[in-house]
Amino acid sequence: MKSYRRELWFEVPERLGFVNINPQVEECVRASGISEGLVLVNSMHITASVFINDDERGLHADYARWLEELAPHEPIRQYRHNDTGEDNADAHLKRQVMGREVVVAVTGGRLDFGTWEQIFYGEFDGRRRKRVLVKIIGE
Amino acid sequence: MKSYRRELWFEVPERLGFVNINPQVEECVRASGISEGLVLVNSMHITASVFINDDERGLHADYARWLEELAPHEPIRQYRHNDTGEDNADAHLKRQVMGREVVVAVTGGRLDFGTWEQIFYGEFDGRRRKRVLVKIIGE
Amino acid sequence: MKSYRRELWFEVPERLGFVNINPQVEECVRASGISEGLVLVNSMHITASVFINDDERGLHADYARWLEELAPHEPIRQYRHNDTGEDNADAHLKRQVMGREVVVAVTGGRLDFGTWEQIFYGEFDGRRRKRVLVKIIGE
Q1: Least CB-CB distance to A62: which of B38, B93, B137?
Q2: At A62, phi and psi to the nearest 5?
Q3: What's the pLDDT tens digit per position in A69-95?
Q4: A99 interface with B at CB cutoff 8 Å
Q5: How many angstroms separate the CA atoms of C56 and A122, rounded?
Q6: What span, in angstroms and rounded, lies between the C-alpha atoms of A76 and A81?
Q7: Any CB–CB contact under 8 A between C53 and chain A?
Q8: Is CB count within 10 Å lower at the N or C end of chain A?
Q9: Best of A112, A115, A124 to disrupt the B interface by mutation (most B CBs within 10 Å)?
Q10: Cα separation of A104 and A87, whole Å?
């Protein structure tokens, strides 16, 4: 069994944003030399997500509006987490809707994807450098 | 290390529906000859889910109603994704609530499940043929 | 390839609660002797979650309030699942928001985590003994 590990770093300039990280994950699979296995891609932060969906700007605007309705940032004082001096409780909630991680099959040395699947980093408390972990195991 | 891959195909006749795919996944585990490992089961489409819950008709009706409240199909024009000519933006949102994939332990050559766990395909933009990927790695 | 399996048991005294299970999962990784691989941690029940977030009491209060808004317990009769004699339909919904499972990288014999990541058991229909599965594969 082989294994491979890499950290990817991002700094989203707004509080909320989505970044297509598919090329970086594909590059990890190539670099790993693994042809059959599983790749785990997860946010190492608890106010961000890794998820798979469509690379379509309108959809990302829909996600942003919808998540703000489900877990609004304001008023900050509605959240007990923010009593600690934070203002990011909503980001911890949004991240649960979108998920922490994805697990993707590696087949024939490539991400084994349907036509429209792309991996995204979802940021809900940005404006600072944050990390994603890529771990691959297989043969 | 052994690996195994199979695609399962479904065509749900309505826009939204749930299909118990546990027997097909169990058959994949048997066919793989893997006794200890992990199985990944994921939708290859971004408007559908794979999830684990109860095989109970009333619960599925509750999921359908609840998801429609959280991410209503109508009015279609409320979603920027639908400006592209699609009408399925809500399906991309519903799928995030229910999840893309499950990872299940394989122990002694079987799905290592609690009493009530069953794997479902959740369709949110049906009436066409769509795929689920089963990938198993282990020994 | 090595594999390791253990069940963890919990009894949350209220209907809803969160338990930090990170120490038990770390102990499983140590006991497994696996230094590079993946660990799957999942609820074996369909009214409970395993998720990763912050060990902060205020945030857990926020999760409890938010989940009750998204999927209220009362009135019980609003859910068709409860026509079967159950009163826990809401727990099946809450669990989908928070997720069934997490997959975590094992690197150098340890959980490969960001600074604030901690694994939690999320109970939505407690007051009875319930199980979490830990499965580790790797080398």
Answers
A1: B93
A2: -65, -45
A3: 999 999 999 999 999 999 999 999 999
A4: yes
A5: 22
A6: 9
A7: yes
A8: C
A9: A112
A10: 33
